[in-house]
Specification:
Strand order of the largest sheet: 1-2-3-4-5-6-7-8
Radius of gyration: 26 Å
Strand content: over 45%
Organism: Flavobacterium swingsii
Protein name: Outer membrane protein beta-barrel domain-containing protein
Keywords: Signal
Number of strands: 8
Signal peptide: 1-25
CATH architecture: Beta Barrel
Shape: elongated
Distance between the termini: 75 Å
Order of helices and strands: HEEEEEEEE
Largest sheet: 8 strands, antiparallel, barrel
Structural class: mainly beta
Number of domains: 1
CATH topology: Porin
Oligomer: single chain
Length: 183
């Protein structure tokens, strides 16, 4: 009889400790109501293209951002980018990118990962192609400043092969510095 009473006592003690542990584990959190809203960022871009005849890329953009939560946002970006040729006998390629994306803050609400997809509309030198545009990026943002490193891939723009023939698709690695504010 003593053994069953000890088992009952231990069982009641263990269950009471679980409830006590759960009640002590609850913390009072100061939760602030996060207002969803729009932000606008104006940025400048510089990059290096990984295909001949292009080498340097310079541009400017405007990014509209809708904050779903404190960590997740939807983006819409457009602007103008110019890819400069590396040789004097070629023509630069200027285009207007239009991209939609998703931004997720992953560390300290300042470091983020972002993926964008859209189109690049060529507008210079009688080059009337449109290309699929994919752009993953990583960045750091404060309330006003946004600095990011991104790779952009242009699926349908022409590049030169080593033998001088034309092929499709190339990419560039770029840096973006932007100033942002709430709307």
């Amino acid at each position: 009889m003593k053994i069953t009473q000890k088992i009952k006592f231990l069982l009641v003690f263990a269950i009471s400790m679980l409830f006590a542990n759960n009640s002590n584990a609850q913390e009072v959190q100061d939760t602030k109501n996060y207002d969803q809203g729009f932000r606008l960022g104006l940025g400048v871009n510089a990059g290096y293209a990984f295909a001949d005849p292009y080498k340097l890329a310079l541009g400017a953009d405007a990014r509209l951002q809708y904050d779903l939560t404190k960590r997740y946002s939807l983006t819409l970006t457009t602007g103008f980018t110019n890819l400069f040729v590396s040789k004097a006998d070629g023509s630069d390629l200027g285009f207007i990118p239009v991209k939609a994306g998703f931004k997720a803050f992953v560390w300290n609400d300042q470091f983020y990962l972002m993926g964008e997809a859209g189109a690049a509309f060529a507008v210079t030198n009688d080059y009337n192609k449109t290309s699929l545009l994919l752009a993953p990026s990583i960045g750091y943002a404060t309330k006003r400043i946004d600095i990011s490193l991104r790779y952009e891939h242009y699926n349908d723009f022409a590049r030169l092969n080593n033998d001088g023939s034309l092929a499709k698709g190339f990419g560039q690695l770029g840096v973006r510095l932007a100033y942002g504010f709430e709307l």
